């Protein structure tokens, strides 16, 4: 029970939407394979075009795209996540290792807005359900209470959404 509560506070799943976004960005900057649909910056329906392109890539993202060096997102493997917060008297140090996340390939992109002129992309990434398992080590000091422990970690996040805004500075 204690380990499950810690996992909620750690918010490791901020990493998942970022991993999905970086996988998509890695695809964007590589040589374009024939199975990828390219959207024109001048397309008045660029938002729908990009959403359709992502949907076409979903199955490939799930298992990875080796020719573009994009790793599989199912399961998403996080080798190490560390949360270190607070001053020495109220320190929380949590190390999570070998985390496997099941369900990232079911992501839903909502409210996608692409502004090609300002090179700005904003969207929400949502997941109905994410299951995870891994190992944890905790070393925490809460006033006079010193908590130390390690073990297996499992959990489920339901209805998880995060807002992502990515802006690039372009010199013309």
TrEMBL record:
Keywords assigned: Membrane, Transmembrane, Transmembrane helix
One GO location term (cellular component): extracellular space
Keyword Transit peptide annotated: no
Domain of life: Eukaryota
Residues annotated as transmembrane: 12-32
A Pfam match: JHBP
Keyword flag tRNA-binding: no
Cleavable signal peptide: none
Gene3D superfamilies: Haemolymph juvenile hormone binding protein (3.15.10.30)
InterPro entries recorded: Haemolymph_juvenile_hormone-bd, To_sf
PANTHER family: CIRCADIAN CLOCK-CONTROLLED PROTEIN-LIKE PROTEIN (PTHR11008:SF39), PROTEIN TAKEOUT-LIKE PROTEIN (PTHR11008)
Name assigned to this protein: Circadian clock-controlled protein
Originating organism: Temnothorax longispinosus
Highest classification ranks of the organism: Eukaryota, Metazoa, Ecdysozoa, Arthropoda, Hexapoda
């Amino acid at each position: 029970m204690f380990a499950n509560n810690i996992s909620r506070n750690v918010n490791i799943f901020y990493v998942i939407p970022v991993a999905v976004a970086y996988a998509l960005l890695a695809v964007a900057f590589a040589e374009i394979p024939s199975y990828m649909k390219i959207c024109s910056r001048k397309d008045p329906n660029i938002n729908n075009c990009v959403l359709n392109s992502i949907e076409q890539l979903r199955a490939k993202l799930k298992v990875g795209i080796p020719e573009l060096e994009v790793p599989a997102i199912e399961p998403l493997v996080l080798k190490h996540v560390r949360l270190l917060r607070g001053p020495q008297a109220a320190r929380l140090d949590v190390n999570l290792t070998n985390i496997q996340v099941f369900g990232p390939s079911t992501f839903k992109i909502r409210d996608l807005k692409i502004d090609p002129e300002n090179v700005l992309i904003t969207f929400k990434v949502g997941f109905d359900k994410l299951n995870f398992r891994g190992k944890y080590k905790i070393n925490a000091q809460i006033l006079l209470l010193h908590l130390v422990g390690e073990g297996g970690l499992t959990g489920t996040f339901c209805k998880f959404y995060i807002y992502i805004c990515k802006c690039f500075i372009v010199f013309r």
